[in-house]
Amino acid sequence: MFTGIDEVDWASMRHAYGSAEDVPALLEGLASADAAERETALDGMYGAVHHQGDVYDSTLACVPFLFALAVREEVRDRAGIVELLASIGGVASDEPGGDGTAARARAAVRAGAEVFVRLMTDPDAAVRRAAAGAVVRFLDEPERALCLLRERIRAERDDRVLLALIEGLGRFARRHPARAGEAVDLLEAQSAPPHGPGLRLAALGQLAGCAPERLPADLVPHVLRLLRERARQRPALPDEPDRPGTDTLIGRLRLLRPSDEEGSQLLRTLHTALDDRVTERIALLSGQLACPDPVDRCNAVWMSTGLFRTWRADYSEPVALIGAQLPGEDVRLRDAAVSVLAELHELAAPAADALHTLVTERPETRVRTWERGTPALGDALKALARTGDPRAVPVLAEVLAGPIVPAELGHVIPHLGRTAAPLAPALRGRLAGLALDAPDLHDRAVPLLCAVAALGDTEALPAVLRLMTGLPAEVRLRETVVASAARTLGTLGAAAREAVPVLRGLLDGPCGIAAAEALWVLEGDAEAVLPLLLGELTGEAGGSARVAAEALGRMGPAARPAAPGLYRLIRSGDLWERTAAACALWRVTGEPDPASDTLRAAWRESPYTRVPIATLAVRLGPEAEPLCDLLRTELAARRRHRATPGGYAGTDLHEDEILLRRCREACLSST
């Protein structure tokens, strides 16, 4: 297995953390008789040699030894080695100007494709399962790959391997559309009796991705019938040797797997393939959430987030059904439901009754305490508050009166608006009681300041000033706390005028912009703040041009002397500086040109700019007409503005709902 390993100059090679001298030990660990050592070695391979999908010269040097390990039946856990090889071979293309390592990695794994062919008949079912997908990906003979899949489907008796073979058929049909006919025919045959419900669900998921026209007309009820049938005959969890309790990423991921990982993957594949068929997906999800089996319902809860975050639609029914999972005694299901609802913000409103019942009847859910780390607000109470439901207020009051108050509590107050006013005395008291030299002062003070600002609590002024004037110089993130306090003063209006001398004293320091903004709100004296903001805008004071531009924009026409600097900044190479300068220039001069052209370009360049641009349109009212075609197009779009095709990464559902509200409001005001 390791012939020639000592002849490789590992010391001259690199991996993610430096010298690859430790790689031989990792490779040898993969062959260890000790399960914990094998898992630690595999974790090390993913953590260093194939870190986050990257490949290095040491990764290439490992490939022959990994193939040698994969074919030795005495080596345990070879399926993990096959999956590692497939991951190395599937690495994306090299970056422009790269050294070609990724291309060589793909070629090295492709050159060993005959090993995957051999492993399709391996005695170990887990190895056969891993090899099934690898053959389709790396064998350069499509007809032979299809023939192997067809033969193995006829001969295979292990359902988990059959599932992988069906997935391989779908992958083949997508990779080789000109040769997809037989693969699709095989999938259609697998989707019908006498095959079991799990295999039929798998085949339907693959058909949805490569031949949707071959799906049954009554797809949703058909799938739900199969799901219920599968639940009635759900196979026991696969027999596995006792797994070590290693403190590795692989070990932690294993603990996080759903109890029915196979069922979760079957339905997730189908949902992903259905993509923009949102009406069917909502009906399917609602049916899953109404299944009698709690495991199926738990899988549905977790996969709902992919739908919610990607597509704009009326989700009242599935959200209410997620709320219906809260009253039961199934802890896993309840935790999944509250975790999802906490991320939905206002869209969780259909579940508000169930959330209120839970936090009322189960006080222990209000605060989560950890063996390590600080206490956190319970997801159910957080979800209820984020819907804006006033019933959260008395429950939060009880938490504030208790012995443990999570620091993040202050961040949910803005969602409740003025209905949270009864909490002001307790919040004010917590703010006044903070130890100014505490190491976690920042983590506790900033959320409380956020709450005070949201409530406009003028009686909190002494506590806010105490933070601005009394913090020791060595306090962690001191400037952030002081800047947050200054911004809070700006929300308190005339009642905070006594803070003006303190704010003036901050103008020459690192919190100058925040102090200038507050001073402008309290005094309306442009001459007092413009020199600082103009200096920051041009970079003369070494500050943030973007933040200065945003502050000038909020001043409006009073900041007219900043127009030349803003004109220059809209030509910045930084997208956010250009966007902030254009927003400010429009508000300062009242003229759409050239700001509108810059903003239109920014809107198209990055979806992250759309909320501030739509917010500007709301403030401009009828004058925002040059942007309204963008807003109307956004309102007509079905996909959320930061959702990318084929994935959900980077999508903020709440931000998308804010964008839609801003677009509607701006369009209404412009008509």
Task: Please state how the strands of the largest beta sheet are arranged side by side.
Answer: 1-2
Beta percentage is: under 5%
Major beta sheet summary: 2 strands, antiparallel
> Which geometry do the CA atoms define?
globular
Structural class per helix/strand content?
Answer: mainly alpha
- Give the helix proportion (percent range): 55-70%
Distance between the termini: 75 Å
Q: Gyration radius, to the nearest Å?
A: 30 Å
Low-pLDDT segments, ≥5 res: 237-241, 252-257
Mean pLDDT: 92
Number of helices: 36
The number of distinct β-strands equals 4
From the structure above, extract its key features.
671 residues; mainly alpha; globular; 36 helices; two-stranded antiparallel sheet; 4 strands
What does this structure look like?
The chain has helices spanning 23-30, 35-49, 57-70, 78-89, 101-111, 113-119, 125-138, 142-155, 159-175, 180-190, 197-210, 219-232, 249-256, 261-274, 278-289, 294-310, 316-323, 331-342, 352-361, 379-386, 392-401, 409-416, 424-432, 441-455, 461-470, 478-489, 500-506, 512-523, 526-538, 545-555, 563-569, 575-589, 595-605, 610-620, 628-636, 653-670; strands at 14-15, 18-19, 367-368, 376-377. The chain has 671 residues and is mostly helical. α3 (57-70) runs antiparallel to α4, α8 packs antiparallel against α9 and α11 (197-210) packs antiparallel against α12. The protein is globular, with a radius of gyration of 30 Å. The termini are far apart.
